[in-house]
Amino acid sequence: AGSGAGADMRTEISTAAAFVTRLLRAAGGVGEEQLRCFRECLQEAMHEHYKHHWFPLVPSKGSGYRCIRINHKMDPLIGKAAGMIGLSHERLFQLLPSELTLWVDPFEVSYRIGEDGSICVLYESPQPGAKVAKQLESRTSCKEEWRIGRSSPSKSYNMMTVSS
């Protein structure tokens, strides 16, 4: 582990890049070598994009800047990595969910497919100095949710309501 902000975000970035790569692999039609290259390019692009916007002491700071989003427009970081392996934006829209939000924050990577989908946690680690680590049990049910239909109509999602 090196010093500085850059060294601390490797796990979060590699988790996020692996997730997008898995979505591409599940859609089919992209070779393993291309997928490996895509993942590396995406990790590099994210690292470059986030390096001055990573605040482990205030994990939510800069969250909007680090959010990866596909919403009828292709996220530039995904678009750039895809361009490196010759995938057009049109092709990406066929392969990836049309509505995808991926939050890459210190200590937590989570995503939502569809505007009304539930938020699923891909990676979570206790924050140094945090009193209690959040329990993940209630959220494990959505781990495989990304396999559900590509068009993600909101009707197929059950909203999880949490009452206090």
From TrEMBL:
PROSITE patterns membership: BTG_2
Coiled-coil annotated spans: none
SMART domains: btg1
InterPro entries: Anti_prolifrtn (IPR002087), BTG (IPR033332), BTG-like_sf (IPR036054)
Domain Anti-proliferative protein: 96-115
GO biological process: negative regulation of cell population proliferation
Family: Belongs to the BTG family.
Protein name as annotated: BTG1 protein
Organism: Zosterops hypoxanthus
